[in-house]
Amino acid sequence: MTESTPVLELVGVSKRFGAVEALKDVSLALAAGEVHALVGENGAGKSTLVRILAGVHRPDTGTLKLDGHELVLRGPASARDHGIAVIHQHPNLFPDLEVAENLFIGHLPRGRLGGVDWRELHRRADELFASLGVAQKVNVPVRGLSVADQQLVEIAKALSTEARVLVMDEPTAALSTHEVERLFAITRQLRDRGVAVLFVDHRMDEVFEISDRISVLRDGRHVITAAASELTPDETIRHMVGRRVESLYPKEEATVGEVALEVRGLTRKGVFNDVSFEVRRGEIVGLAGLVGAGRTEIARVLFGIDRADAGEISVLGKRVTIDNPTDAMRHGVVYVPEDRHEHGLVLDFSIASNISLPIVSKLSRLLVMDRGRERDLATDYSKQLQVRSTGVGQSVSGLSGGNQQKVVIAKWLATRPTVLVLDEPTHGVDIGAKAEVHRIISQLAAQGMAIVLISSELPELMGMADRVLVLHEGRVAVAFDRDALSQERIMAAATGHPEK
Amino acid sequence: MVRAVEAPASSNLAGRIGLERTLALIARLRELGILLALAVIVLVVSVQTPVFFTVSNFEQILLSVALIAIVAVGQTTVVLTRNVDLSVGSVVGLVAFVTGDLLKEHVLGVPAAILAGCLLGLGLGVLNGLIITLGRVPAIVATLGTLNIYRGLAFLIAGGKQVSVIDLPKSYLQIASSSVLGVPTLIFSAIVIAAIAAYLLRYSRTGRQLYAIGSNPAAAEVVGIPSQRLVFGAFVLCGLLAGVAGVLWGSRFGTVNAGAASGLELQVIAAVVVGGVNIFGGSGTVVGAVLGAILLGTIQNALTISHLSQFWLQAIDGAVILLAVGTDAAIRSYFQRILTRTGRR
Amino acid sequence: MSALRDRLLARWETLLVLLLFAFLVLGTSLSPYFLSASNFSDMTSNLMEKAIMALPLALIIIAGEIDLSVESMLGLSSALLGFVYLLGWPLWIDIPLVLAVGALGGLFNGLLVTRAGLPSLVVTLGTLALYRGLASVVLGPQSVSRWPDSFTNFGFGTVPGTLLPWPFVIFAVLAVAFMFVLHRTWIGRQIFAIGKNKEAARYAGIQVARVKTLLFVLSGTLSALAGVVLTARLSSARADNGQGFVLDVVTATLLGGVNIFGGEGTIAGVVLAIFVIGVLRNGLTLADVSPDVQSVVVGALLILSVAGPTAVRRIRSAWSTRRFVQSAINR
Questions:
Q1: Which other chains touch chain B, taking contact as 3+ CB pairs less than 8 Å apart?
Q2: Which residues have CB under 8 Å from B12's CB, separation 6+?
Q3: Which run of H or E residues covers position A218?
């Protein structure tokens, strides 16, 4: 085996989505028989890179090389045909079909009469799982399998197509400790068989347990690639976050008042456990943590989308029950969701219609919507938040990400909330608009609103938050005060590797 | 995400057997369940009306069910892909009438007329398929439209007249009353068609791909399955089988007018759904659909024999659709919840 | 609202007017009796039950669901009306009772869709059969034909001094009310939001399940009302009343510009479309074309009204992609 030619390479790959540059001139080489970890914060470009390898996106510039030859992927099927198997975070199997059939779909073994040879299919499937050292019944529908087991099916499926490259995108997110160990054992086997494994993760302990080589992405750029033996978790974290803290809008001083939101012992089985914190008027409390740590899940419970299994929520000192968003709104708790296209906005509606949506009944007299009032309200907020548009009648689908986000914020401001929960508010927003959104948040706090800021952008938390709670696997791991904040400390706590 | 050390052992039956095996059991349970329900009905009715429990009566049941079963086979292929064909009743009626008319007017001989009828069914299926795949019209709207178009065409061609028994050649009429190897031709045809379909769905690559399309359309695209082509094919097959049923319908009933087989589509869908074919696609068997047809046919027969109001039939079809789909959904969500509770998402 | 849809819709309603005009011309050419007030009065009269049912169906489809059971609820209410009237109960009790049953039927649909999470297509397919079946159970094959004059005069007669059928008055009032609710009130705004993006609506505090259930109740109630009107007009309560109506009702809605995928539509368009269908059927009837054959045209209209906009949309986007690529190359 030639040590020199990597199996799969990215050379100078860039990819842009609208205003956001997801990848900038990234080069990466995957060698056979090696587990290569790809780490980076949320938004560093890892998912985009995976999707390019999977054939879902085409790079804007740069090339892919397979065994040194240029490779153009025309789609996911094409990637598969070239021996690249990708296991996404959510398994993409056929739930009604048997495990065995899922493994060999597309190349089911034929019997003498030309029909599917089920016995042979089962035999081969059993063989495959046996070679992985896994006991799995192959004649059951995939639907009944746990996520961990479905992942293993995906891995076995990759083996069945004799994949040479296996890309795993945050595979450990939904697994128990035991299942992670099992996954790692299998990964090592595959590596020993000569498969090139790309392992996207950001739990330091896992990364250092399984990988031979580590690459760090930051803000869409490749920072460093080194053998795992040459790096320490601390250094890696530093590479992940090390950057000049951008000039954000300086935080306005706000008088911190009474406790606006108090959460005690909030639990949702399997998602987060015994979460307690309080937010005062004028305060910005940051929630940090990795994807899957439970931050958005807590926000959804606060807003009534999901129900908690245990715990209490109090607003302005009064215990409240929040069973649905209407309850939350009534108690003055509102939520700016992470996915503004799916949950935050009705894309075909105008700016004004989006802003008025939660309060349509209040903007009406005897059922009739007062379009004038709606327009005035929208114009006011539009001006206040500096939404750049051709007018409040413009469809929000035509706005930039930053302006769209401002519309979502405006929508909730119109309900005059007590507590504003923001989930990744500057995700997919360009620098200029980011600063504006920060200014808005800062001003809101100064005006006495209690703000919960969920963010994966550490500089953002550093610049905005009075306090930061770091969640790790559903629990509040550490709480930092503003002066004790540092990006390294936050990331370390988030990756389960807290500083001593 | 709370890292569980080990997934807690569940104390319930599902946990003990294992979720995967339980689900597989449920699938097989469906067919057993139908047989059980059949047994119960037969028992209860036979006690009340002994006439029920005779070979000739059972043969009657199977005869009346045979045509529905044939159409149900075609409908099953369509439903497996997450679609539905509401036009089948109209296809059967149109083909039955046209075939009879061709024979009545001595345009074609019996074999040619039969072939023409089948081809007509095929053609109508092709039209359905084109509207849905090329025209991108949702199956429900497309086949609601063609249900009326095909029925209207039947009325247009009929012009108020009907085809009567006396107009038809004996050889044609005898098809329905003849037997093959001691089994009435109608029942034999149904069995053969169902058997072939069952075999193809289980053992052919195309058949398996149909299941894949219905189970996860997105993944099917990724894996490179030609979904559009296969869905088109499913509708063509459905039309063809409805055409075959139409030809046999004409033979069985002799007298056919333009309104023949009206409302058949609901009976067929009820049979398919009761038979365990998932209305969302991806799972279900032809055997199940046929058993469903037999169950509903038995109920119909039981009602007739017990002189109970025939008018309950349509209501039963409707109730049956609702019950079957509802229970399937309930079972599925029950298992989803169990999966979530034990920490496995 | 979407700019593209606005332009398309503006042209859509124009298209409907053109279509209406075309069918009027067709009708005139087919029969000398076509262009007469009495004919239009008859035509309208025949149309009103379907028109009444099309109104709530439009809202349901805009909200992202569908209700195929409308014609069967009509039949059930007609049968029930006949049944209780035969029992000797006076009409002023019967009619509200029948409307209440309609509401219950709609509630049943609504709960199965929102609580049990079943697709409305399948649910209303099932209730299409169930309610019609129940109608047969209630009334059997018989028809009830003896009705008080006041009742039949209402169904068959016209507003004194004009040729406007009474049912038209009901429909007109309802149409105005629906137009008001859908396009002017906050409820209508919520309905559009639900149809456009159910999740975003939920996250905006809209009670999606409640709204949908209410729409189904409304549909059931108005279908029952249509049943009462039809019974009065035909002077006959029968279990098979309204059989086949669902085609025209669904076609009117989709032809009227309501998007089958939800989130878009106007009442004005639906009203225009219902008259397009009415004029078409009327003209064909006068030309001795049987109702079943007329359905061929209506069925084709149904398919075209969905296939048409989709095709246009795809041609437009292919065109704009082409221009985009061209300009990218030229850069």
A1: A, C
A2: B338
A3: strand A213-218
Task: Determine the Cα–Cα distance for residues A419 and A362; give it in Å rounded to an integer.
Answer: 20
**Residue A21 φ/ψ, nearest 5 degrees:** -90, 105
pLDDT value for B13 = 46
Structure tokens, A349 = 């509606």
**pLDDT tens-place string over residues A411-421:** 999 999 999 99
In this structure, which amino acid lies at residue B15? G
Q: Judge whether A324 and A299 are in contact, CB under 8 Å.
A: no
CB pairs under 8 A between B and C: 144
Mutate to test the interface with A, among C179, C183, C196, C203 (most CBs of A within 10 A): C203
Q: What is the pLDDT of residues A451-473, one digit of tens each?
A: 999 988 888 888 889 999 999 88
- Interface size A-B, in CB pairs within 8 Å, comes to 125
Candidates C61, C302, C305, C317: best to mutate against B (most CBs of B within 10 A) is C302
Q: Is A200 helix (H, G, I), strand (E, B) or coil?
A: strand
Could you read off the pLDDT of A345-356 as tens digits, one per residue? Answer: 999 999 999 999
Whole-model pTM over 0.80: yes
The 10s digit of each residue's pLDDT in A239-266 is 887 665 555 556 777 888 899 999 999 9
Cβ–Cβ contact B308 with C under 8 A: no
Residue C119 CB neighbours (<10 A):
17
Residue A221 DSSP SS3: strand
* Domains of chain C listed by start with CATH number: 2-293 (1.10.3470)
d(CA A303, CA A325): 5
Judge whether A297 and A265 are in contact, CB under 8 Å. Answer: no
Q: How many CA atoms lie within 13 A of A30 on its CB side?
A: 29
Q: How close is the nearest chain A Cα to the Cα of C325, in Å?
A: 14
Is residue B318 within 8 angstroms of chain C, CB to CB? yes
Rounding to the nearest 10 degrees, give the CA dihedral for residues C185, C191, C197, C203.
70
Would you list the DSSP string of B165-232?
A: GGGS-HHHHHHHH-EETTEEHHHHHHHHHHHHHHHHHHHSHHHHHHHHHHH-HHHHHHHT--HHHHHH
C318 touches chain B (CB under 8 A): no
State how far the alpha carbon of A416 is from the alpha carbons of A358, A447, B3, B155, C210, in Å: 11, 12, 38, 64, 25
Question: Is the confidence at residue C131, as pLDDT, over 50?
Answer: yes
Sorted by sequence, the CB contacts under 8 Å of residue A36 that are 6+ apart come out as A30, A196, A197, A198, A199, A211, A212, A213, A214, A215
- Of B23, B208, B345, nearest to A101 by CB-CB distance is B208
Q: Which residue of A has its CA nearest to C1?
A: A349
Instruction: Given the cut 0.85, state whether the ipTM is greater than it.
Output: yes
Q: Which of A270, A277, A296, A248 is nearest to A467 (CA)?
A: A277
CA atoms within 13 Å, Cβ hemisphere of A285: 26
Asked if C121 lies within 8 A of B140 by C-beta distance, the reply is yes
> What's the pLDDT band for C3 if we cut at 50, 70, 90?
low
**Dist CA B112 CA B105 (whole Å):** 13
| Chain A residues near residue B5 by CB distance under 8 angstroms | 176-178
Q: Which residue in chain A has the smallest CA separation from B200?
A: A115
- Residues 83-112 of chain B with CB under 8 A from chain C are 84
Cβ contacts of B154 on chain C, cutoff 8 Å: 292
Q: How confident is the model at residue A1 (pLDDT cuts 50, 70, 90)?
A: very low
Residue pLDDT, tens place only, A52-110: 998 888 999 999 999 989 989 888 888 888 999 998 877 889 999 999 999 998 888 88
